[in-house]
């Protein structure tokens, strides 16, 4: 019998058994991991000469183990303009960290910070700034935000969310714009164990 081949398998099996036992012991309080996906609609005030448009949002969250009553999550979300607006429109793909509070309650507020890339498109004929006409710019986006999920059932929640987004590389004197995104949608939670609701 080759112990070098058997020992790693025994070690992995032991760690898996310990993790499973720990998860089962805490299952009624909070899940060890939590996966959810959401779809939503957004109103976007682009911060560029009064621009505004309507968008659709899709995303997912991976909830990590709870730490001191707070569940950290990894989030990814994409925003796509359903209309391109008269002045400009914004499309983005962001990822980052989210922190859920008031676990095991129906109303779960959270704060997040996301970052990624965005594309800002300027009207039908572009936008003239100085001696240049800008059709679109691709830029980094930084997005702090906050919101809440309200649980309708074990699997479904309503999402209300607001993000303040910093876009660089814009054709403005400062080179930056701050957009505001308000979002309402539905969350579907994939459950891996029971969770009590009041």
Brief digest:
With 198 residues, this protein is mostly beta strands. It has one helix at 3-25, and strands at residues 34-45, 52-63, 71-81, 88-100, 107-122, 127-129, 132-134, 136-151, 156-168, 176-190. The chain folds into two domains: 1-28; 31-190, Porin, CATH 2.40.160.20.
Order of helices and strands: HEEEEEEEEEE
Determine Rg (CA atoms, Å): 22 Å
Q: In this structure, how is the largest beta sheet organized?
A: 8 strands, antiparallel, barrel
Structural class per helix/strand content?
mainly beta
Helix content: 10-25%
What are the main properties of this structure?
198 residues, mainly beta, Porin, eight-stranded antiparallel β-barrel, two-stranded antiparallel sheet, 1 helix, 10 strands, 12% helix, 58% strand
């Amino acid at each position: 019998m080759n112990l070098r081949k058997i020992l790693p398998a025994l070690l992995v099996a032991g760690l898996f058994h310990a993790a499973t036992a720990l998860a089962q012991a805490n299952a009624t309080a909070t899940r060890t991991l939590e996966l959810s996906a959401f779809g939503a609609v957004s109103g976007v005030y682009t911060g560029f000469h009064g621009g505004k448009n309507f968008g659709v949002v899709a995303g997912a969250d991976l909830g990590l183990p709870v730490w001191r009553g707070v569940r950290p999550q990894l989030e990814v979300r994409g925003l796509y303009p359903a209309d391109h607006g008269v002045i400009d429109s914004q499309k983005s793909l962001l990822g980052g960290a989210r922190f859920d509070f008031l676990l095991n309650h129906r109303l779960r507020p959270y704060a997040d910070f996301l970052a990624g890339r965005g594309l800002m498109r300027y009207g039908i004929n572009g936008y003239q700034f100085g001696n240049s006409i800008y059709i679109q710019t691709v830029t980094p986006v930084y997005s702090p935000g906050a919101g809440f999920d309200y649980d309708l059932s074990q699997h479904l929640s309503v999402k209300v969310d607001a993000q303040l987004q910093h876009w660089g590389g814009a054709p403005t004197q400062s080179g930056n714009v701050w957009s505001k995104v308000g979002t309402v949608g539905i969350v579907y939670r994939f459950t891996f164990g029971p969770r009590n609701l009041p």
